UniProtKB/TrEMBL annotation:
Statement: the UniProt record of this protein carries the keyword Oxidoreductase: yes
Membrane-spanning parts: none
Organism: Vitis vinifera (Grape)
Residues in Glycerol-3-phosphate dehydrogenase NAD-dependent C-terminal domain copies: 215-363
Domain of life: Eukaryota
Keywords, comma-separated and alphabetical: NAD, Oxidoreductase
Matching SUPFAM superfamilies: 6-phosphogluconate dehydrogenase C-terminal domain-like, NAD(P)-binding Rossmann-fold domains
Family annotation (InterPro entries): 6-PGluconate_DH-like_C_sf, 6PGD_dom2, G3P_DH_NAD-dep, G3P_DH_NAD-dep_C, G3P_DH_NAD-dep_euk, G3P_DH_NAD-dep_N, NAD(P)-bd_dom_sf
Entry's EC annotation: 1.1.1.8
Sequence similarity: Belongs to the NAD-dependent glycerol-3-phosphate dehydrogenase family.
Residues noted as binding NAD(+) in the record, renumbered to the chain: 30-35, 118, 174, 290, 319, 321
Residue positions binding substrate: 141, 290-291
Name recorded for this polypeptide: Glycerol-3-phosphate dehydrogenase [NAD(+)]
Matches recorded under Gene3D superfamilies: N-(1-d-carboxylethyl)-l-norvaline Dehydrogenase, domain 2, NAD(P)-binding Rossmann-like Domain
Amino acid sequence: MAPAFEDETASETNFSDVEQLHKSKVTVVGSGNWGSVAAKLIASNTLKLSSFHDEVRMWVYEEILPSGEKLSEVINQNNENVKYLPGIKLGKNVVADPDLEHAVKDATMLVFVTPHQFMEGICKRLVGKIRGDAEAISLIKGMEVKMEGPCMISTLITDLLGINCCVLMGANIANEIAVEKFSEATVGYRENRDIAERWVRLFSTPYFMVSAVQDVEGVELCGTLKNVVAIAAGFVDGLEMGNNTKAAIMRIGLREMKAFSKLLFSSVRDSTFFESCGIADLITTCLGGRNRKVAEAFARNGGKRSFDELEAEMLQGQKLQGVSTAREVYEVLSHRGWLELFPLFTAVHEISTGRLPPSAIVEYSEHTPRLNVLEGSAQYC
Ligand SMILES: NC(=O)c1ccc[n+]([C@@H]2O[C@H](COP(=O)([O-])OP(=O)(O)OC[C@H]3O[C@@H](n4cnc5c(N)ncnc54)[C@H](O)[C@@H]3O)[C@@H](O)[C@H]2O)c1
Protein backbone atom coordinates (compact mmCIF):
# COMPACT_ATOMS: atom_id res chain seq x y z
CA MET A 1 0.00 0.00 0.00
CA ALA A 2 1.33 3.39 -0.86
CA PRO A 3 2.18 5.69 2.07
CA ALA A 4 -0.53 8.18 3.03
CA PHE A 5 1.59 11.22 2.26
CA GLU A 6 1.92 10.10 -1.39
CA ASP A 7 -1.85 10.01 -1.75
CA GLU A 8 -2.13 13.44 -0.20
CA THR A 9 0.45 14.82 -2.61
CA ALA A 10 -1.44 13.33 -5.53
CA SER A 11 -4.73 14.85 -4.46
CA GLU A 12 -3.00 18.18 -3.81
CA THR A 13 -1.65 18.09 -7.35
CA ASN A 14 -5.11 17.44 -8.76
CA PHE A 15 -6.59 20.20 -6.65
CA SER A 16 -3.88 22.55 -7.83
CA ASP A 17 -4.57 21.56 -11.48
CA VAL A 18 -8.24 22.45 -11.04
CA GLU A 19 -7.24 25.68 -9.30
CA GLN A 20 -4.93 26.56 -12.20
CA LEU A 21 -7.74 25.91 -14.65
CA HIS A 22 -10.00 28.41 -12.92
CA LYS A 23 -7.44 31.16 -12.57
CA SER A 24 -7.96 34.20 -14.77
CA LYS A 25 -5.31 34.85 -17.42
CA VAL A 26 -4.70 38.48 -18.27
CA THR A 27 -3.48 39.95 -21.56
CA VAL A 28 -2.88 43.65 -22.07
CA VAL A 29 -3.46 44.67 -25.69
CA GLY A 30 -1.23 47.72 -26.14
CA SER A 31 2.15 48.76 -24.78
CA GLY A 32 2.41 52.54 -25.07
CA ASN A 33 2.89 54.82 -22.08
CA TRP A 34 -0.37 53.94 -20.28
CA GLY A 35 -0.41 50.38 -21.60
CA SER A 36 2.97 49.72 -19.99
CA VAL A 37 1.92 51.27 -16.67
CA ALA A 38 -1.31 49.24 -16.73
CA ALA A 39 0.75 46.06 -17.27
CA LYS A 40 2.99 47.01 -14.32
CA LEU A 41 -0.01 47.62 -12.01
CA ILE A 42 -1.70 44.38 -13.03
CA ALA A 43 1.49 42.31 -12.79
CA SER A 44 2.11 43.45 -9.22
CA ASN A 45 -1.37 42.16 -8.33
CA THR A 46 -1.43 38.86 -10.24
CA LEU A 47 1.60 37.79 -8.18
CA LYS A 48 -0.32 38.45 -4.96
CA LEU A 49 -3.85 37.31 -5.86
CA SER A 50 -4.42 33.58 -6.10
CA SER A 51 -7.35 33.92 -8.53
CA PHE A 52 -5.05 35.13 -11.32
CA HIS A 53 -2.19 33.50 -13.21
CA ASP A 54 1.08 35.21 -12.38
CA GLU A 55 2.05 35.84 -16.00
CA VAL A 56 0.69 38.93 -17.77
CA ARG A 57 1.03 38.97 -21.56
CA MET A 58 1.44 42.37 -23.19
CA TRP A 59 0.89 42.69 -26.93
CA VAL A 60 3.51 44.96 -28.45
CA TYR A 61 3.02 46.70 -31.78
CA GLU A 62 6.48 45.80 -33.03
CA GLU A 63 8.92 48.61 -33.72
CA ILE A 64 12.60 48.63 -34.61
CA LEU A 65 14.55 50.84 -32.23
CA PRO A 66 17.35 53.17 -33.42
CA SER A 67 19.79 50.48 -32.14
CA GLY A 68 18.32 48.08 -34.74
CA GLU A 69 16.78 45.86 -32.02
CA LYS A 70 13.12 44.85 -31.81
CA LEU A 71 11.15 46.65 -29.11
CA SER A 72 9.47 43.46 -27.85
CA GLU A 73 12.84 41.70 -27.44
CA VAL A 74 14.33 44.64 -25.57
CA ILE A 75 11.30 44.73 -23.25
CA ASN A 76 11.75 41.03 -22.43
CA GLN A 77 15.52 41.36 -21.94
CA ASN A 78 15.40 44.46 -19.73
CA ASN A 79 11.91 44.12 -18.24
CA GLU A 80 11.42 47.72 -19.30
CA ASN A 81 9.65 49.48 -22.18
CA VAL A 82 12.62 51.60 -23.17
CA LYS A 83 10.63 53.58 -25.73
CA TYR A 84 7.32 54.36 -24.02
CA LEU A 85 8.15 54.03 -20.31
CA PRO A 86 11.92 54.31 -19.86
CA GLY A 87 13.43 53.81 -16.42
CA ILE A 88 10.54 51.75 -14.98
CA LYS A 89 10.67 47.99 -14.36
CA LEU A 90 7.43 46.34 -15.42
CA GLY A 91 7.70 43.23 -13.25
CA LYS A 92 9.37 39.98 -14.33
CA ASN A 93 5.98 38.34 -14.91
CA VAL A 94 5.19 40.73 -17.80
CA VAL A 95 5.90 39.01 -21.11
CA ALA A 96 5.99 41.16 -24.25
CA ASP A 97 4.49 39.39 -27.26
CA PRO A 98 4.51 40.91 -30.77
CA ASP A 99 2.07 38.28 -32.10
CA LEU A 100 -1.44 39.63 -31.45
CA GLU A 101 -3.30 36.36 -31.94
CA HIS A 102 -0.85 34.42 -29.81
CA ALA A 103 -0.98 37.05 -27.06
CA VAL A 104 -4.78 36.85 -26.65
CA LYS A 105 -5.39 33.17 -27.36
CA ASP A 106 -5.68 31.88 -23.75
CA ALA A 107 -6.69 35.11 -22.05
CA THR A 108 -9.86 35.25 -19.98
CA MET A 109 -9.35 38.94 -19.14
CA LEU A 110 -8.44 41.31 -21.97
CA VAL A 111 -7.26 44.84 -21.21
CA PHE A 112 -7.46 47.09 -24.28
CA VAL A 113 -5.18 50.13 -24.15
CA THR A 114 -4.06 51.41 -27.56
CA PRO A 115 -4.69 54.80 -29.18
CA HIS A 116 -8.34 54.65 -30.26
CA GLN A 117 -7.71 55.03 -33.99
CA PHE A 118 -6.16 51.52 -34.13
CA MET A 119 -8.91 49.69 -32.28
CA GLU A 120 -11.25 48.85 -35.14
CA GLY A 121 -8.40 47.20 -37.07
CA ILE A 122 -7.23 45.32 -33.97
CA CYS A 123 -10.76 44.04 -33.18
CA LYS A 124 -11.24 42.86 -36.77
CA ARG A 125 -8.01 40.87 -36.51
CA LEU A 126 -9.24 39.29 -33.26
CA VAL A 127 -12.62 38.05 -34.51
CA GLY A 128 -12.78 34.30 -33.80
CA LYS A 129 -9.35 34.36 -32.12
CA ILE A 130 -10.33 34.94 -28.50
CA ARG A 131 -11.99 32.73 -25.91
CA GLY A 132 -15.78 32.89 -25.87
CA ASP A 133 -15.80 33.40 -22.10
CA ALA A 134 -13.32 36.30 -22.14
CA GLU A 135 -14.15 39.54 -20.34
CA ALA A 136 -12.78 42.86 -21.58
CA ILE A 137 -12.00 46.28 -20.20
CA SER A 138 -11.11 49.37 -22.23
CA LEU A 139 -8.71 52.03 -20.94
CA ILE A 140 -8.99 53.83 -24.28
CA LYS A 141 -10.12 57.42 -24.61
CA GLY A 142 -11.87 58.25 -27.86
CA MET A 143 -14.76 57.23 -30.06
CA GLU A 144 -15.45 56.11 -33.62
CA VAL A 145 -17.91 58.08 -35.69
CA LYS A 146 -19.88 55.96 -38.15
CA MET A 147 -22.73 56.67 -40.55
CA GLU A 148 -25.22 55.49 -37.97
CA GLY A 149 -23.74 57.71 -35.25
CA PRO A 150 -20.99 57.75 -32.62
CA CYS A 151 -19.71 54.43 -31.34
CA MET A 152 -17.85 54.22 -28.04
CA ILE A 153 -14.77 51.97 -28.02
CA SER A 154 -16.29 49.59 -25.43
CA THR A 155 -19.28 49.16 -27.76
CA LEU A 156 -16.98 48.56 -30.72
CA ILE A 157 -15.25 45.79 -28.73
CA THR A 158 -18.58 44.23 -27.69
CA ASP A 159 -20.06 44.47 -31.18
CA LEU A 160 -17.05 43.10 -33.05
CA LEU A 161 -15.88 40.48 -30.55
CA GLY A 162 -19.17 39.53 -28.89
CA ILE A 163 -17.82 39.98 -25.35
CA ASN A 164 -18.82 42.13 -22.39
CA CYS A 165 -16.63 45.22 -21.97
CA CYS A 166 -16.18 47.45 -18.91
CA VAL A 167 -14.13 50.67 -18.95
CA LEU A 168 -11.51 52.18 -16.64
CA MET A 169 -10.89 55.94 -16.73
CA GLY A 170 -9.61 58.51 -14.25
CA ALA A 171 -7.17 61.24 -13.38
CA ASN A 172 -4.32 59.05 -14.54
CA ILE A 173 -1.30 60.65 -16.12
CA ALA A 174 0.65 57.45 -16.74
CA ASN A 175 4.12 58.71 -15.79
CA GLU A 176 2.91 59.72 -12.31
CA ILE A 177 1.34 56.31 -11.63
CA ALA A 178 4.50 54.64 -12.96
CA VAL A 179 6.42 56.15 -10.02
CA GLU A 180 3.63 55.12 -7.66
CA LYS A 181 2.20 58.52 -6.79
CA PHE A 182 -1.27 58.21 -5.26
CA SER A 183 -4.21 58.49 -7.65
CA GLU A 184 -7.74 57.22 -8.23
CA ALA A 185 -9.66 55.65 -11.10
CA THR A 186 -13.22 54.67 -11.95
CA VAL A 187 -14.42 51.39 -13.46
CA GLY A 188 -17.66 51.72 -15.41
CA TYR A 189 -19.73 48.57 -15.77
CA ARG A 190 -23.03 47.69 -17.42
CA GLU A 191 -24.79 45.07 -15.27
CA ASN A 192 -22.52 42.55 -13.66
CA ARG A 193 -21.15 43.94 -10.40
CA ASP A 194 -19.05 40.78 -9.77
CA ILE A 195 -17.11 41.29 -13.00
CA ALA A 196 -16.57 44.96 -12.12
CA GLU A 197 -15.21 43.91 -8.74
CA ARG A 198 -12.81 41.47 -10.38
CA TRP A 199 -11.43 44.37 -12.46
CA VAL A 200 -11.22 46.55 -9.35
CA ARG A 201 -9.16 43.82 -7.59
CA LEU A 202 -6.89 43.43 -10.61
CA PHE A 203 -6.01 47.14 -10.78
CA SER A 204 -6.15 48.33 -7.15
CA THR A 205 -2.96 48.99 -5.23
CA PRO A 206 -2.33 51.16 -2.15
CA TYR A 207 -1.35 54.01 -4.50
CA PHE A 208 -4.05 53.35 -7.14
CA MET A 209 -7.56 53.46 -5.66
CA VAL A 210 -10.23 52.10 -7.97
CA SER A 211 -14.00 52.25 -7.49
CA ALA A 212 -16.84 51.02 -9.70
CA VAL A 213 -19.97 52.76 -10.97
CA GLN A 214 -22.79 51.33 -13.08
CA ASP A 215 -22.47 53.77 -15.98
CA VAL A 216 -20.22 52.58 -18.83
CA GLU A 217 -21.18 55.37 -21.23
CA GLY A 218 -20.86 58.13 -18.64
CA VAL A 219 -17.39 56.99 -17.53
CA GLU A 220 -16.18 56.48 -21.10
CA LEU A 221 -17.54 59.78 -22.39
CA CYS A 222 -15.90 61.65 -19.49
CA GLY A 223 -12.53 60.14 -20.38
CA THR A 224 -13.01 60.84 -24.06
CA LEU A 225 -14.40 64.38 -23.99
CA LYS A 226 -12.02 65.84 -21.42
CA ASN A 227 -9.24 65.61 -24.04
CA VAL A 228 -11.13 68.17 -26.15
CA VAL A 229 -11.33 70.53 -23.16
CA ALA A 230 -7.59 69.96 -22.54
CA ILE A 231 -6.86 71.25 -26.05
CA ALA A 232 -8.84 74.40 -25.20
CA ALA A 233 -6.89 74.73 -21.91
CA GLY A 234 -3.63 74.43 -23.86
CA PHE A 235 -4.71 77.28 -26.19
CA VAL A 236 -5.38 79.43 -23.11
CA ASP A 237 -1.90 78.63 -21.75
CA GLY A 238 -0.26 79.35 -25.11
CA LEU A 239 -2.00 82.72 -25.24
CA GLU A 240 -0.95 83.38 -21.60
CA MET A 241 -4.47 84.21 -20.53
CA GLY A 242 -4.05 83.13 -16.91
CA ASN A 243 -5.82 81.00 -14.36
CA ASN A 244 -9.25 82.65 -14.32
CA THR A 245 -9.65 82.07 -18.04
CA LYS A 246 -8.46 78.50 -17.74
CA ALA A 247 -10.91 77.81 -14.91
CA ALA A 248 -13.72 79.31 -17.02
CA ILE A 249 -12.78 77.08 -19.95
CA MET A 250 -12.75 74.03 -17.67
CA ARG A 251 -16.19 74.89 -16.25
CA ILE A 252 -17.72 75.49 -19.67
CA GLY A 253 -16.01 72.36 -20.93
CA LEU A 254 -17.43 70.26 -18.09
CA ARG A 255 -20.90 71.62 -18.83
CA GLU A 256 -20.57 70.65 -22.50
CA MET A 257 -19.19 67.22 -21.55
CA LYS A 258 -22.23 66.56 -19.38
CA ALA A 259 -24.76 67.90 -21.91
CA PHE A 260 -23.21 65.99 -24.83
CA SER A 261 -23.07 62.73 -22.84
CA LYS A 262 -26.68 63.04 -21.71
CA LEU A 263 -27.94 63.91 -25.16
CA LEU A 264 -26.26 60.79 -26.55
CA PHE A 265 -27.19 58.47 -23.66
CA SER A 266 -30.04 59.37 -21.34
CA SER A 267 -28.75 56.71 -18.90
CA VAL A 268 -25.64 58.78 -18.06
CA ARG A 269 -25.66 59.73 -14.36
CA ASP A 270 -24.87 63.19 -12.97
CA SER A 271 -22.86 61.60 -10.13
CA THR A 272 -20.38 60.11 -12.62
CA PHE A 273 -19.04 63.62 -13.33
CA PHE A 274 -17.92 63.80 -9.67
CA GLU A 275 -15.93 60.56 -9.84
CA SER A 276 -12.23 60.37 -10.71
CA CYS A 277 -13.17 59.84 -14.39
CA GLY A 278 -15.05 63.17 -14.39
CA ILE A 279 -13.95 66.37 -12.72
CA ALA A 280 -10.64 64.91 -11.45
CA ASP A 281 -9.51 63.71 -14.88
CA LEU A 282 -10.59 67.02 -16.41
CA ILE A 283 -8.47 68.96 -13.92
CA THR A 284 -5.33 66.84 -14.28
CA THR A 285 -5.55 66.85 -18.09
CA CYS A 286 -6.00 70.62 -18.24
CA LEU A 287 -3.05 71.17 -15.88
CA GLY A 288 -0.65 68.53 -17.23
CA GLY A 289 -0.91 65.98 -19.99
CA ARG A 290 0.17 65.84 -23.59
CA ASN A 291 -2.99 67.31 -25.18
CA ARG A 292 -2.64 70.52 -23.18
CA LYS A 293 1.11 70.66 -23.85
CA VAL A 294 0.89 70.33 -27.63
CA ALA A 295 -2.10 72.72 -27.82
CA GLU A 296 -0.05 75.28 -25.89
CA ALA A 297 2.73 75.00 -28.49
CA PHE A 298 0.13 75.29 -31.28
CA ALA A 299 -1.21 78.57 -29.84
CA ARG A 300 2.31 79.95 -29.17
CA ASN A 301 3.03 79.41 -32.86
CA GLY A 302 -0.17 81.30 -33.77
CA GLY A 303 -1.63 78.12 -35.28
CA LYS A 304 1.00 78.19 -38.05
CA ARG A 305 2.47 74.76 -37.27
CA SER A 306 0.03 71.87 -37.58
CA PHE A 307 -0.86 69.50 -34.76
CA ASP A 308 0.55 66.58 -36.80
CA GLU A 309 3.92 68.31 -37.04
CA LEU A 310 3.98 69.27 -33.35
CA GLU A 311 2.85 65.79 -32.27
CA ALA A 312 5.67 64.14 -34.22
CA GLU A 313 8.23 66.61 -32.84
CA MET A 314 7.11 66.73 -29.20
CA LEU A 315 5.74 63.27 -28.40
CA GLN A 316 8.25 60.76 -29.86
CA GLY A 317 5.70 58.25 -31.09
CA GLN A 318 3.05 58.90 -28.44
CA LYS A 319 -0.32 59.90 -29.83
CA LEU A 320 -2.58 62.89 -29.21
CA GLN A 321 -6.25 62.03 -28.72
CA GLY A 322 -7.87 65.44 -28.23
CA VAL A 323 -7.60 66.72 -31.80
CA SER A 324 -9.09 63.62 -33.40
CA THR A 325 -11.77 63.45 -30.70
CA ALA A 326 -12.65 67.12 -31.38
CA ARG A 327 -13.10 66.21 -35.07
CA GLU A 328 -15.27 63.21 -34.18
CA VAL A 329 -17.39 65.27 -31.77
CA TYR A 330 -17.73 67.98 -34.45
CA GLU A 331 -18.98 65.39 -36.95
CA VAL A 332 -21.65 64.26 -34.47
CA LEU A 333 -22.63 67.86 -33.68
CA SER A 334 -22.91 68.96 -37.30
CA HIS A 335 -24.74 65.79 -38.31
CA ARG A 336 -27.33 66.35 -35.57
CA GLY A 337 -27.59 70.14 -35.94
CA TRP A 338 -26.13 70.71 -32.47
CA LEU A 339 -23.11 72.92 -33.33
CA GLU A 340 -24.61 76.02 -31.72
CA LEU A 341 -25.30 74.15 -28.52
CA PHE A 342 -21.63 73.32 -28.03
CA PRO A 343 -19.58 76.44 -28.79
CA LEU A 344 -16.46 75.29 -26.94
CA PHE A 345 -16.25 71.87 -28.61
CA THR A 346 -16.98 73.52 -31.97
CA ALA A 347 -14.30 76.20 -31.50
CA VAL A 348 -11.65 73.62 -30.54
CA HIS A 349 -12.14 71.80 -33.83
CA GLU A 350 -12.26 74.97 -35.91
CA ILE A 351 -9.05 76.29 -34.31
CA SER A 352 -7.29 72.92 -34.65
CA THR A 353 -8.03 72.82 -38.36
CA GLY A 354 -6.92 76.43 -38.92
CA ARG A 355 -10.37 77.82 -39.69
CA LEU A 356 -10.23 80.11 -36.64
CA PRO A 357 -7.23 81.66 -34.83
CA PRO A 358 -6.33 80.31 -31.33
CA SER A 359 -7.71 83.50 -29.74
CA ALA A 360 -11.21 82.42 -30.84
CA ILE A 361 -11.22 80.04 -27.87
CA VAL A 362 -12.53 82.89 -25.70
CA GLU A 363 -14.54 84.66 -28.37
CA TYR A 364 -17.01 81.90 -28.86
CA SER A 365 -19.14 83.10 -25.93
CA GLU A 366 -20.18 86.09 -28.05
CA HIS A 367 -22.24 83.59 -30.02
CA THR A 368 -24.34 83.25 -26.86
CA PRO A 369 -24.42 79.61 -25.95
CA ARG A 370 -28.09 78.83 -25.77
CA LEU A 371 -27.66 75.65 -23.89
CA ASN A 372 -29.67 75.18 -20.78
CA VAL A 373 -29.12 71.80 -19.26
CA LEU A 374 -32.19 70.89 -17.27
CA GLU A 375 -32.58 67.58 -15.53
CA GLY A 376 -30.48 65.74 -18.04
CA SER A 377 -31.92 67.23 -21.21
CA ALA A 378 -30.50 70.05 -23.29
CA GLN A 379 -32.98 72.72 -24.32
CA TYR A 380 -32.85 76.10 -25.99
CA CYS A 381 -33.42 79.00 -23.59
N1 LIG B 1 -0.50 58.10 -21.41
C1 LIG B 1 -1.37 58.46 -20.49
O1 LIG B 1 -1.04 59.17 -19.53
C2 LIG B 1 -2.79 57.95 -20.58
C3 LIG B 1 -3.56 57.98 -19.43
C4 LIG B 1 -4.86 57.49 -19.47
C5 LIG B 1 -5.36 57.01 -20.67
N2 LIG B 1 -4.58 56.99 -21.79
C6 LIG B 1 -5.19 56.43 -23.01
O2 LIG B 1 -4.62 55.15 -23.24
C7 LIG B 1 -4.67 54.86 -24.64
C8 LIG B 1 -3.30 54.37 -25.08
O3 LIG B 1 -2.35 55.37 -24.86
P1 LIG B 1 -0.83 55.10 -24.46
O4 LIG B 1 -0.40 56.28 -23.66
O5 LIG B 1 -0.68 53.75 -23.84
O6 LIG B 1 -0.11 55.05 -25.90
P2 LIG B 1 1.05 56.03 -26.47
O7 LIG B 1 0.43 57.20 -27.13
O8 LIG B 1 2.08 56.25 -25.41
O9 LIG B 1 1.77 55.13 -27.56
C9 LIG B 1 1.28 54.87 -28.83
C10 LIG B 1 1.15 53.36 -28.97
O10 LIG B 1 0.55 53.07 -30.21
C11 LIG B 1 1.27 52.00 -30.83
N3 LIG B 1 1.03 52.03 -32.26
C12 LIG B 1 1.59 52.84 -33.20
N4 LIG B 1 1.11 52.52 -34.42
C13 LIG B 1 0.22 51.51 -34.24
C14 LIG B 1 -0.62 50.75 -35.12
N5 LIG B 1 -0.65 50.99 -36.42
N6 LIG B 1 -1.41 49.80 -34.58
C15 LIG B 1 -1.41 49.57 -33.24
N7 LIG B 1 -0.63 50.23 -32.36
C16 LIG B 1 0.16 51.20 -32.86
C17 LIG B 1 2.69 52.28 -30.42
O11 LIG B 1 3.49 51.13 -30.58
C18 LIG B 1 2.51 52.63 -28.95
O12 LIG B 1 2.41 51.48 -28.18
C19 LIG B 1 -5.15 56.14 -25.33
O13 LIG B 1 -6.53 56.02 -25.59
C20 LIG B 1 -4.93 57.21 -24.27
O14 LIG B 1 -5.85 58.29 -24.39
C21 LIG B 1 -3.30 57.42 -21.76
